[in-house]
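Q: What would this chain look like folded?
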Amino acid sequence: MGRETIRYYIREGLLPEPTRASRNSASYSEAHVTRLKAIKRLQEERFLPLAVIRSLLDAGGEDGGERWLEPQAFPELDSVLRARLDHDAPRVAVSDVMAQTGCGDEDIDQQSAAGVIAVDAAGTMSARDATIMRVLGDLRTTGFTSERGFTTESMKFYLDFVEWVTTQEMRLFFEHTAGRIDEAEATDMAERGVASINELLGLLRTRSLLNKLGARRPTANDDS
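A: My prediction, written as structure tokens:
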């Protein structure tokens, strides 16, 4: 890892400042080395952006959460869980997605630029991303159009929420399972947990919306 990369991580808050004996001399501890290895591993193996990595490390407390970020903490869980959840679904050509959803090149480009979907160099996306485009198309048909202000940028808070909640989920899961159960049980837990939490979030969100609409009615009547 290059010197400038390390300095960048320090500036971004991913690494603590080293001990400096002089202006041109810095002393790094084993804690720095461990954290650098964790950052590199999360980038290369879990494809996480630096902002999420920083949240994961900070959420672990003073030790930076390195205990559950060690490679021996379920090293095969990522690949096995991905295979189970995706069921080896083939990638879908962008042209097919456009034909099925009625979206155009601009829609694909906007969602890709915003990080909602990912299109590879071959012009394909995952089956899950194709489903996301279908759902976005359904929303547009329902009336959630850019002309009415429902733009990709205005709905970016969904992406921010997902990044935040999944960061907390990963921290909580690994903290309470790593070193306590074997990888097979952890994979089963994670697989079932994804479906259950998806259902739970939907129920909680619907309940909260209805409660807020209910609270809004008397407030509106009082104001009138």
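Confidence is low (pLDDT under 50) at residues 61-65.
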